[in-house]
Fold this protein.
Amino acid sequence: MSDPTIAGYAATGPAGHAAVCRLLQSEIERALPKAAARIWHAMPVWFLGGNPIVGYKITSRHVNLLFWNGQAFADCGLTAAGKFKAAQVHYTDAAQVDIKALRRWLKRSGTHIWDYEGMRAAAGRRA
């Protein structure tokens, strides 16, 4: 079911980026029906359990699609992001989205889950 808060996020950026967001939201919800969506760190993110799986962020230049465990997918097309296991791809237009690759990444994101929740809990115990 489409979340109106997530859908409303598409209107926060440049007009061309809204179509990208709507397409990504539709594909994510189709591929990960058991994932819970919410705005997290000012961007739509889908979670399985307490672990973030996939999200996207509008910037002035593009829409950044991020997979928290994307580096484990062994696919071309995603670029490593940050110091953990995330990988990303940028879109400026919905026509750039390779639906076949996106669906493959989404399928893997639901099975290759990085234990972010466990890492945070362990860090809290060390503090």
User: Anything to note?
Assistant: The domain at 4-126 is CATH 3.90.1150.200 (Aspartate Aminotransferase, domain 1). The CA atoms of residues 28 and 106 lie 7 Å apart.
